[in-house]
Amino acid sequence: MASIGKIEPGRYEVRWRTPEGASRRKVVRGGPEQARRFARSLESAKDRGTYVDPQLGKQTVGVYANRWLDSVRGTLKPKTVASYESLIRSRIVPALGTRRLANLRPSDVQRWVGDMQAAGLSASRIRQAHVCLKQVLDAALRDGALGRNAASGVKLPRLEYKEAAYFEPQIVAQIESGLPAPYGPFGAHYGNDRASMGRSGWTPAPPYRSLAQAGGRAHVPQ
After folding, report:
1. 71 and 125 in one domain?
2. Contact 14, 39 (CB under 8 A)
3. What CATH number does the domain containing 102 carry?
4. What is the pTM of this model?
5. Angle between the 78-87 and 123-142 helix axes, to the nearest 10 degrees?
6. pLDDT (tens digit per residue) in 70-117
7. Which domain holds residue 182?
């Protein structure tokens, strides 16, 4: 149980032990009721399994991020480790490295994402940086240094997907007619399958390997 001691009028010291048995103390300003309320919240959090150690929360994001990477290094592929090292060094530490874990807010992370967008970073790179930070804060959450992950629920830039380019049927026909034997027409290669694909409206792409064997050139009738 937490104990309460009066230091002077308006200041009370609350002492307690963490679930691991470490001793902690905090000075609470106000009257005895404020001190008792704080002590009850500590015991309630320990009972629910949601206790947050204020001492651990004083660690900075930068220090904890590097400790986290060291702890998981052996479980990751070298390429993944190199990627996380780069993201921590170039994106997380310069912007958030000096912030205490307990003081990091979702609005801070959202601003960080916005700053990367304004700097012209790609949506893919921003999302990679966010994934790395979220994993760092998830670890801090499991360690009891945080009560919630400030990187959760942050709005991220959308990834742009470009549809692959396809030849129009008339272009395919022109390429086909321009290929020398034995590389054209395509019917010699596709046979009945080509006919069935034509009926379905799907046109196969030209055989680039065959075109290369033909000297890399084909006359396309105008």
Report:
1. yes
2. yes
3. 1.10.150.130
4. 0.64
5. 90
6. 999 999 999 999 999 999 999 999 999 999 999 999 999 999 999 999
7. 169-213
